[in-house]
Amino acid sequence: MSAQISAVKCGSYDPDTVGRCVREALDLLGGIKLFVKPGSRVLVKPNLLMSTPPEQAITTHPQVVRSVIRLLKDIGCRVVLGDGPSVWGKYIENVDEVYEATGIKKVALEEGVELVNFDKRRMRDKFPLTVWLDECDCLVNLPKVKTHGLTLMTCAVKNLFGLVSGTYKTELHKNYFKPSEFVKVLVDIYQEAKPVLTIADGVLAMEGDGPGTSGRPRKLGLLFAGSDCTALDAVVAGVMGILPGKVLSINEAVRRGLGEGDLSRIEIKGEDVFNLGIAPFVLPQSSKAVQLPGVIETLAKSLVKYYPYSLPGKCVLCGHCVNICPEKCINLGKRGPVFDYRKCIACFCCQESCPSAAIGLKRSFLAKVIGL
Ligand code: SF4
Ligand code: SF4
Q1: What is the pLDDT of residue 147?
Q2: Are the CB atoms for 45 and 163 separated by under 8 Å?
């Protein structure tokens, strides 16, 4: 076996239950000190995609974050907590709103840890990543288990995209819009940030058109931990009913020698997750198109496409989709967004950022004909 991942059943977000389960997940791997040096300064990065309450399963639950902070404090660590949510405009005020809505601000206050935003950056490789990576001794990664319209699933590796400073994430979506190119960016960031430990919140996961409000919460009742993000993603993919080889970010990481993607070579400590009778997750509508092999991707992408469209009666005219669209191809009409499909690159950022699940996806004619 070349990698070890732990998986622990966790039936609810009751604080004591989560605390016990997080500790167990780490003890199965040898304890937190095996990964984090006592007394060090640690950047803790949950997934705080947007301003939604924890029960919507879009963000890492605050009790998971709290439990990890307590374990780090127990070994004398100083914790810095933060993420780079999908916000724009008044950046700092809007990040603060996300921290409030997701319950993270309360946790930071109650646990007495520093809550930071990722507006200041330093170029690492070719990306402007938060300076907090440099200011801290190590990174602890706390992703949420979810489906994802562009990358099929989001967990350990994808969560690191939030380390990109400020609104530069939109630029990356614009410049690397093909899934096969975008996952290279994700793996570049993984290579650069190298979290020492990842603990994934799969207690209430997400299926369907994730990772935002268009997805559906799905009870899974599991926490996962490990230091190999690729292996952790492979195990989570398997649990979701996805072959790890279908996840482009896993393939790219394996190709670069950054972790283990072969389930037969990953030792899973704790729960026998593949014999729990977990039904496969409902995948995003776009999942077949985004899994097209790279060779035919370029040709097919222009014909086999999923387009965003406005779902009647749901838009609250907030304008988030207009602001986040990397191609600036959305105008806000009286009843909702109007899309210029000639410019749309099918990045699905608009759907991901919509607070009202008001953006659906429709297939192009050819996608329907060939059954994608
Ligand atoms: S309209 Fe939506 S899917 Fe198309 S480029 Fe803009 S954000 Fe991306
Ligand atoms: S579609 Fe969603 S994000 Fe866009 S304006 Fe309407 S509610 Fe806001």
Answers
A1: 98
A2: yes
CA of 336, closest atom in ligand 2: 6
Residue owning the nearest CA to atom 3 of ligand 2: 354
pLDDT in tens, 122-165: 988 788 999 999 999 999 999 999 999 999 999 999 999 999 98
Pick the atom of ligand 1 nearest to 330's CA: 1
- Give pLDDT tens digits for 39-88: 999 999 999 999 999 999 999 999 999 999 999 999 999 999 999 998 76
Whole-number average pLDDT of the chain: 92
Q: Provide mean pLDDT across the span 163-169.
A: 85
| CA angle in degrees (0–180, nearest 5) for 13-49-32 | 50
Contact 293, 245 (CB under 8 A): no
Question: pTM of the predicted model, to two decimals?
Answer: 0.94
Instruction: Show Cβ contacts of residue 295 under 8 Å, excluding neighbours closer than 6 positions.
Output: none
Q: How far is the CA of 126 from the centre of ligand 1 (A)?
A: 24
pLDDT tier, 331 (very low <50, low <70, confident <90, very high otherwise): very high
Number of H helices, E strands in the chain: 15, 16
Which of 323, 307, 321, 317 is closest to 360 using CA atoms? Answer: 307
The finding on whether 327 has its CB within 6 A of some atom of ligand 1 is yes
Phi first, then psi, for residue 309 (nearest 5°) are -145, 160
Q: Ligand 1: does its nearest atom lie under 6 Å from the Cβ of 349? A: yes
Q: How far is the CA of 328 from the centre of ligand 2 (A)?
A: 14
- Ligand 2 atom 2, closest CA: 354
Set out the domains of the chain in order of their start, with CATH numbers.
Answer: 3-275 (3.40.50), 287-369 (3.30.70.20)
**Residues 8, 262, 162, 358, CA torsion sign:** negative
The region of weakest confidence among 12-21, 29-38, 339-348 is 339-348
Q: Is 325 in the pocket of ligand 1 (CB under 6 A)?
A: yes
Ligand 1 atom nearest 345 alpha carbon = 5
Q: Give dist(CA 151, CA 148) in Å, integer.
A: 5
- Beta strands of 171-301 (E only): which ranges? 197-208, 215-226, 266-270
Give mean pLDDT, residues 249-272: 98
